[in-house]
Amino acid sequence: MKPYILQQTNWKQVKSENYEIALIPWGATEPHNYHLPYGTDTLETTKIAETAAGKAWEKNAKVMVLPTIPFGVQNPGQIELPFCLHVPPSTQTILFADLVNALHNQGIKKIVLLNGHGGNDFKPMIREIQAEYSDAFIGLMEWFKLIDIKDHFEDAGDHAGEMETSLIQYLFPELVLPLEEAGDGKAKTFKLKALKEKSAWTPRNWSKVSEDTGVGNPKKATPEKGKIYFELITDIIAEFLIELAASDLNDLYE
Ligand SMILES: [Zn+2]
């Protein structure tokens, strides 16, 4: 029973503590190549949030991890696959606004979103809601962008590749199929130069890009690589939570 995980804790604990930060993990529910669970983004983001909050709690940061939101924004071509649960950004914004409103009414003014899914583009949503709560801090961390993945994985991949496979092998070994059963995550690129070089952007049609739904080869994944990466990113998140918990929201600039 951890006092920083809302799903596990109780009113007796909450009543006696002054919580500073609400940490909201946000994932997705979608196919992840053949070998990883649909819940990959939700499962890994939950573990990352809980572990980071635990590290921060040890240093006296009063943070509460809220239940992970499992509904993400998906790409065309993936939306059609069975049980790929797409919700549009407008729905995410309504839900998030309701959560911020509830927390703000309870006096919790430091709210941090932990994003674990590339299709979730939360900055516009935060800008929209922040404007209504001038005395609140609404922050965003995207764990998959915190350190250069290429320093830790040979073929990190965008989706269900070596990085994500290593993380799930480490955190939920019982939920990964043997790597022989995984597809190679081979992905096509755009023909158009600007799209290929990323000077222009449009969502990729997933079923035209990848046959197995993966983008990135998972074959070199190991739980050891997952553990090292997990420790590094949870340290970075914990450090931010510690600093934020101790901060005066009226004095954030130097
Ligand atoms: Zn994922």
Features:
single chain; 254 residues; alpha/beta; 4-stranded parallel beta sheet; 8% strand; globular; binds zinc ion
Provide the list of bound ligands, each named once. zinc ion
Distance from N terminus to C terminus (CA atoms, Å) equals 39 Å
Question: What shape does the CA trace take?
Answer: globular
Please count the helical segments: 8
Main beta-sheet annotation: 4 strands, parallel
What's the helix-strand series? Answer: HEHEHEHEHHHH
Count the beta strands. 4
Structural class by helix and strand composition: alpha/beta
**Strand composition percent:** 5-15%
Mean of pLDDT: 96
Identify the quaternary structure here.
single chain
Note poorly predicted spans: none
Q: Which radius of gyration do the C-alpha atoms yield? A: 19 Å
* Strand numbers in spatial order across the main sheet: 2-1-3-4
> What percent of the residues sit in helical stretches (DSSP H or I)?
25-40%
